[in-house]
Amino acid sequence: MKRSRADRVVDELRSMASQRNREGMARYGINTARALGVSVARMRDMARRLGKDHRLAESLWASGIHEARILASMLADPLAASARDMDRWARELDSWDLCDQVCANLFERTPHARRKALLWSRRRQEFVKRAGFSLMARIAVSQKELPDSAFTPMLQAIRREATDERNYVKKAVNWALRQIGKRNPALRSKALDDAARLRRSSSASARWIGADAERELLGRSMN
């Protein structure tokens, strides 16, 4: 029986499996239940060789293998990814590194990125919510053309959700606040105002987010 292209790609990933790498991933809090232990650098080499292929990306995602899903995010076509596809993939995120890779490699490059960031920031599911704030951080870094007004609803979402005590959520909320504040002096001022308010919150998570963001933004000179 002829093997599919996806089967051959998975075979190649399996050939690079490393128990030592899996153990290292686990030490960083990565879910290794379906991981092979293949480095991101090797997956990027594969992605450059394979090229964009949305059908292959969908097949790799369906495999459920951790590295196959990261590779899928590198191969998927952002213009072919529908809002419904994004929701489906987001619901299946099960580790912080997969979440951030999919946001950076695919979700942030789609036309739906800003809308999904705001929608997902309200979701209860941990990694869907993290994806919302990871997307905000990525948008703040990459989408240089956006006006400052585009970040007003994101800052509102950060203030609203800063009390979520879950580690992977609060770290993403903090990341988004810091990256928005680094865009320019005006947004830095707004981010610092929010950080100061959060630092005075009754929520331990909000206090940590505010103090950490304030520390970094005050220590960074703005050109």
Structure explained in plain terms:
The protein has 223 residues and is mainly α. The protein has 2 domains: 1-77, no CATH class; 90-223, Serine Threonine Protein Phosphatase 5, Tetratricopeptide repeat. Helix content is 67%, strand content 0%. It contains 13 helices and no strands. The longest helix has 17 residues, at 126-142. The N and C termini lie far apart (61 Å). The model has no long low-confidence stretch (mean pLDDT 96).
User: Which runs of at least 5 residues are low in confidence (pLDDT < 50)?
Assistant: none
Count of the separate structural domains? 2
Number of helices: 13
Per CATH, the architecture of the largest domain is Alpha Horseshoe
Protein structure class: mainly alpha
Average per-residue pLDDT, rounded, comes to 96
What gap, in angstroms, lies between the N and C termini? 61 Å
Secondary-structure element order, as H and E? HHHHHHHHHHHHH
Q: Gyration radius, to the nearest Å?
A: 18 Å
Biggest beta sheet attributes = none
> What level of helicity do the residues show?
55-70%
- Overall shape: it is globular
Provide the CATH top-level class of the largest domain: Mainly Alpha
CATH fold-level label of the largest domain: Serine Threonine Protein Phosphatase 5, Tetratricopeptide repeat
Strand element count: 0
Strand content: under 5%
